Amino acid sequence: MIIEDLDIIKRLIAEKEGGLVEFKETTGQLERGMETLCAFLNGNGGTVLFGVNDKGKVIGQEVSDKTKRDIAEAINRLEPVAMVQISYVPLPDNEKKVIVFRVEDSKPSRPFCYKGRPYMRVESATTTMPQPAYNELLLQRDGNRYRWELLANSNLTLQHLDTNEVLKTVRLGIECGRLPEDTGTDIPAILGKFGLLKDGVLNNAAAVLFGKHEDMEYPQCLLRLARFKGTDKTVFMDSQRIQGNFFQLLNAAMAFIFKHLSLSGTTDTLEREEHLTIPYKAIREGVLNSLTHRSYKEAGGSVGIAIYDDRVEIENPGTFPPDWDAEKMKSEHESKPQNPLLANVLYKRKVLESWGRGIGLMMSECRKAGLPEPEYKIWADSVTLIFRCDVTNRPSTDQAPTKYRPSTDQVLALVKLLDEGELSVKEIMEALELNHRPTFRMNYLHPALNEGYIVPLYPEQPSHPKQKYRLTEKGLELLKQQ
After folding, report:
1. What is the topology classification, in CATH, of domain 404-482?
2. pTM for this structure?
3. CA–CA distance, 359 with 387 (Å, rounded to integer)
4. Which of 305, 337, 340, 468 could cross-link with 422 by S-S, CB 3.0 to 4.6 Å?
């Protein structure tokens, strides 16, 4: 739309300065106006009006040949070349005009720079675009060729991968109908089908999903866990740093959450069901999203989970798609994974859905539990998800994560037993020669769950007929120390 009418300008002014309109008194502020125009190009488009003051009053300005030359030179300093609609709208009864710069949505050509520097819009302010956001726009513009997850790593070999986890992914994918029965057990062939191996070379996605990270150079595959006393970061009650592949980090995160969020029980069914302060489905979805959709490009990046007395915060590097805002996230929206290759493998394993319903699920689960809807805080290069709740203080371990000590001999006995593999409650009780289920749950099962040594195979359905329990990384570490 070319603006050649003062009435259109007045309608724009009525919208006030914001994400799509900027006022400048004269082209004496041309540089700042061009920076804002660059920011509009990197967003959804917008309009810069010269000859309108900060209060929205039309004052106009004189337009000389020099003014037009200065404007042409400024437009030529935009990179790449941009389509800028320039209008000179005369004011009635005088020689002054309002100069209009307008740009439409230019997503396919982003990112844009003015004088070699990119700009972005944050509410009504124009600011320099951070490097990670600029890189993200470059990746979107140049397609899949430069996605970090697709980059090959010639130093990565099959010996660096947990092949048992690969085969487990195949087994679970077949069980849920997302992989064909004839997928087979040939590891290179499986990795090739998953898009993790090409021409005999593994890519970064393979390392994130299945890597044995104790001897690999992937410092970004890190999870930071902390329980703070009170509502700020002044006093630690528990702190851990876990290095590992996707599934190890997911297990460690959920074990830590089970340890520090209070449990309550209901007996509406034959079996007692345990409930976290924050609904399990909601908090697990939040953790999954943070690990799946985070940016892995920066070696110093990591996911952090911080538990306070009044909330749980999950922070990850990266941002939402540039055209997403809080309202779009809460409404129905398409799935736009940051790392589609990772997301595809997780979908095959039925860890992840592909319908963009995760945020809606979190909101729904929190509403059903009588909790506030989760909040998102979006920064220039990171996203923080916040669950508001009343976290009851629970006993905590030492800060040093390598010194795991079970609270009782019963817990240690259970952990040693599960070293043989996944077992049901009935199988565990028979092996331990126990016959009183309430005592078993109180002295063995619940302490082991709360301290993060074991996790259920079907955490969303505690009374699942095929429910079994297995060791976490923390449980395995305890066995090593024994």
Report:
1. Arc Repressor Mutant, subunit A (1.10.10)
2. 0.58
3. 12
4. 468
